[in-house]
Write the structure tokens for this entry.
Amino acid sequence: MSLHRKKKIEVRNLKKYFEIAKSTFVHAVDDISFDIMEGEILGLVGESGSGKTTAGRSVLRLIEPDSGEVLFDGQNILDFDHHEMKRRRRDLQIIFQDPVSVLNPRKNVFQLISEPLRIHQYGGRKAIRERVCYLAEKVGLSGEIMSCYPHELDGGRCQRVGIARAIALDPSFIVCDEPVSALDVSEQAQVLNLLEQLSTELNLTYLFISHDLSVVRRLSHRIVVLYLGMVMETASAKELFDTPLHPYTRALLSAVPTLNIDKRRERIILKGDVPTPINFGEGCRFFRRCPQAMEVCGGVTPLLKEKNTSHFVACHLYK
Amino acid sequence: MIMILRRFKRDKAAVIGVLIVFLVLLLAVLGPVLSSGDPAEQNLREKRLGPSLKHPFGTDAYGRDILTRILYGARLTVVAGLTVVTASMIIGIFLGVISGYWGGLVDNLIMRIMDFTLSMPYFFLAILIVAILGPALSNAIIAVTITRIPQYARVVRSETLKLKRAGYVEAAMAMGASNTRIILEHIIPNLVGSIIVLSTVGIASAVTMVAALSFLGMGAQPPTAEWGLMLSEGRNYITSDPHMTIIPGAVLALFVLGLNLMGDGLRDTLDPRLK
Amino acid sequence: MTWLKFCEAERKVWSMAGRKNQSSGTLKYAIKRILMIFPLLFMIMSVVFIMLHFAPGDPAILMLGPEATQEKILHIRQELGLDNPLHIQYWDFVKKLVLEGDLGNSYQSGRPVVSEIARTLPISAQLAVTALTISIVVSLLIGVISAVRQYSMIDLFTKIFLMIGVSMPVFWLGLVFIVIFSLKLGWFPSSGWGTFRHLVLPAVTLAAYPTAALTRLTRSSMLEVIRQDYIRTARSKGLSEGATIFKHALKNAFIPVITMIGVELTILIGGSILTETVFAIPGLGRMTVTAVFARDYAVIRGSILTVATLVAIINLMVDLSYTLFDPRIRY
């Protein structure tokens, strides 16, 4: 990995709160920051409720963040007006979790893939048809399914349609929101391979969101671990798996099945349930469930600090 | 599409309905052209005659041939029904989509207006509107249209609210689609099903209501040959020549029956239920 | 045997205890809804008033006839306040209504609108209630039988009858009845009001459509319920057919039927216009029609306000009645 690549995405102090009742806020995303280099695949991991989906949507402004910055190629997209944002959407795409529900059941595959092209006035009918054929081939779909409807296709193929739509306009950044969670194992492998292949071929940058660590490990260069809306640890994939620092990361990793007996870890079972991030005050989010909690953890929020090179952790154990 | 037609054909009652409707439509379009008579032609020597060879349905108080008048009336009835349904559908969809998609103040306002329209029985509202506009067939059509709009608006609104949250709508937004495009491409096409059902049922009651208004004297005015009006004119002679009032009404009833059969059949094929 | 009785008693106790909580929440809801009727009626009244203001025709001329002198016309207009600007007329109207309960006087007869309504409303109500009763009784009977004996001859005839009943225009049906039962057979009078015999034909005419609609609904609702699992369970427990039907099925099939009854009642109020015209019955509907032709805006206003109030009350009662039939619905 070249050290002189530019930063594609820089997220700074992103916050998104949801008001669910009078003066009661869910801190879905609470001051998170990370960078993604050009061509890099950044994995965003966390349990459900960790805020990873909200984070992914906020980065693309599908949900408007409450505060913070999202720099894309150096420009803060949160400052863009409506028209500029619409233009930029060509560059910033998303692949959704449920491959079927994102496809209009009344449209066939050709119409579905050509939709982004039509929205952004790609060109005339001939140009669109050529592009759609090219895209279909790129994602491994045969020409015969062009006239098929979503309910006639399996999950894997539907997701390929979704991927074709995402790359239709030559984006440089794609948020992959749990793209394989709804697929069976064989489909998962195929789609992951495809995503990896496209990343290199088309020089794509990914924010890869998942709750499944084994999937994330397969694809990501770097990983960010999220818990209740805050970053617990950030590191390269290899380092995170070899030397996890944060107790939460350790617990997560212990649950990942591995065939290598030497590398098998002690299963760390966390006590308690995952709370909802409502009206949180000070203190580490993981305090209640942390097996290594100390007194200071309840009162002071740990900051994200660089422990080793490019390995950041937010924990009072490491000062 | 073909599957739908095939299923429809199996429902015998529905097929009968379609036949009736088709017959009436045919008469409406071709009848006036084919028949020799003039609906307004009076022949006072031949007034109030019962059915005969020359006048298969008899004549009315002014000697006008009733069959001819019914044929012309068919045209009016069909046009009235179609106008009401089409207009209320378009306006209802428009209001419903705006209300459901944008919500907020606009939604509230539109819903308040709908509430007003629904606060009294349809017929009273129609009478009120005709009272303001004056008695005429066109005004009767307007009045009935207005009473129909809330039905469409409500259904469309609730469907729009549901569809707004569909995955493919979110995907379209993520691609940068404009609101107009989303509404036209994703929301409205998925509304079509519920609209069709409403419309088929709607034509029957629209037709009946317009005829009813004419019967009361608030719709078509003499000497127009309109079924409802013919009913009311014939009523004066009900003791001596009941055919003058019974026959136009029978034709109307038959037409409505056909529409209902067809509508039910359509509803059952499009939305299979246990019967 | 005793164990069964014990269960029943226990159930009764629990339901009474539950009902206490149920009624307090429902009571609040009921009060809220009743209070909400007033703003709604106010809005309706205002809209109707403004709408009628723009209607063509001069009530003064209509009252006095085309021969009237200019002087007389001006005099009447002044008396009725027809030359005042809209907001003054409106305010006067509201004041009179709220403070004195006075809806003004009929332009035709000069009598207070309130008394005109008081005269005609009971007649229409009688007609509507009779028709509704007929339709409920008949539809329940036929609907249930037809559902239970699905695919039988009874069911077939029912379906045909329903189809026809739903399609008949009410004004034509009335005329047909008059021709057959009044003119040809002489069993009933063809018009007028006063005796029981005057009531029969119009009530049956008016009841035709609601009966058909209700029967359809009862039938399909029963069919749906019968197919449910808990009916099979009840049957397998050994409950007799009759008990099964009445206790379990009917109660649950009733809920959509109640809504429809409410809807039908509102339709009946509207349908009364036509029936009253056909049978020359001095009810609210016919009075409204006459008022429209006479441009008697005072009567039109009063009549519409009355009808809107009735509709609102009916809707409220329907909503509240749900709590009786479905313990899941609570406010």
Summary: Chains A and C do not touch (no CB pair under 8 Å). The mean pLDDT of chain A is 86. The first helix of chain A runs from residue 52 to 59.
